[in-house]
Design brief:
Elements (H helix, E strand, L loop, with lengths): L1 H18 L27 E5 L3 E4 L26 E9 L9 E5 L9 E11 L5 E3 L2 E6 L17 E2 L11 E8 L6 E6 L8 E3 L9 E12 L22 E9 L1 E6 L6 E7 L4 E7 L3 E5 L6 E8 L4 E8 L3
Antiparallel strand pairs: 1-4, 2-3, 3-12, 4-10, 5-9, 5-12, 6-11, 7-8, 7-10, 13-14, 14-17, 15-16, 15-18, 18-19
């Protein structure tokens, strides 16, 4: 009877470990104190800086630069109304600037088992404000080495999980996910872009000076698990991201005075339409170039619907206007 009980407890513990998220503070909600400035990712429990100055944002922040939803790098709400925090990092910096990304990391609650398949996911949202570019190669690197600021992870064009898709969505949260088989007993995870600029694809909008040529991303809901049902992973697709094809990018959002719309190629006759929340058409114009700036000073504050219509498709996004 005692032996059966031991076996039962072993199986139960295995199932529990297999199904759990190995990231102890995945949404950055638990913190030692509220942020008072940028570069304070270490205030989120179990997270730390490995390279440069990744940031921590919280609704309890005492300074606007690290608050939510408005902060020093852009605008973004938390994923749900009950959330209060997320993190952020520069993923791409033009070589003329310094070309060193920001890297954050954490120690997993248990080392990975060699030969076991693990599923990984995290959500990102592009910040348009201080940065004017969007990039790919965002990912997660796993290591057996407890890297530090004095010994940061290498930028050697490799990480177990990354996306080849340029993440451009500034309004919604995009899930990056994938899976890999552990070839070492990895106990540490780092999040950033681990590819150098020559191996990174970017899109820059209105980047006038070299300081504009940066890409910045908010990050939240980090998950690592041996159970595909624990993390938000599409096991059929693998690594997924925000596909620019058949979409359009508009910024800033919320907008004030003007709105810029970027289209991924214009092959058909294309019209841009803006409706108010009551379905009344307020702006309509034919678009001939990839980047179009729209004057919205005549529109009252509120929620609007922006449509891009071609002969083959209709794309719709929500827009918030705050002119006052």
């Amino acid at each position: 009877m005692k032996n059966l009980l031991v076996v039962f407890c072993f199986v139960l513990s295995f199932v529990f470990v297999k199904g759990q998220n190995l990231v102890s503070n995945p949404s950055f909600e638990q913190h030692s104190s509220c942020p008072t400035n940028v570069s304070q990712i270490a205030l989120a429990n179990d997270w730390y800086t490995l390279l440069s100055t990744p940031d921590y944002f919280n609704t309890c922040a005492t300074a606007p630069i690290c608050s939510i939803p408005n902060n020093g790098v852009g605008y973004q709400n938390t994923i749900t109304l009950t959330d209060s925090a997320y993190a952020g990092f520069f993923a791409y910096l033009t070589p003329s600037f310094c070309c060193i990304p920001e890297i954050m990391g954490c120690q997993l609650t248990n080392p990975l088992n060699i030969g076991q398949k693990y599923y990984v996911s995290f959500k990102v949202s592009a910040a348009y404000g201080m940065s004017k570019c969007f990039s790919n190669k965002l990912g997660a690197l796993f290591s057996t080495i407890p890297y530090s600021t004095s010994n940061p992870p290498p930028i050697n064009n490799y990480s177990q999980i990354y996306t080849n898709t340029i993440i451009t969505d500034t309004t919604n949260w995009t899930t990056i996910s994938g899976s890999f088989i552990a070839d070492s007993a990895y106990q540490y995870m780092e999040i950033s872009s681990f590819f150098n600029p020559i191996n990174t694809n970017i899109i820059c909008i209105n980047a006038v000076t070299f300081g504009d040529s940066l890409s910045y991303y908010y990050v939240d809901n980090v998950c690592v698990s041996a159970d595909s049902g624990t993390c938000e992973v599409d096991v059929n697709v693998g690594i997924v991201g925000s596909i620019l094809n058949n979409q359009f990018l508009m910024y800033p959002n919320p907008a004030k005075n003007s709105l810029t719309v970027y289209l991924d190629g214009i092959n058909d006759k294309t019209y841009l339409k803006i409706y108010n929340w009551f379905g009344e058409l307020k702006i309509e114009k034919e678009v001939f170039i990839a980047t179009e700036m729209i004057d919205i000073t005549d529109l009252q504050d509120g929620i609007y619907i922006v449509q891009i219509q071609t002969e083959k498709k209709l794309l719709t996004r929500k827009l918030i206007i705050t002119n006052n």
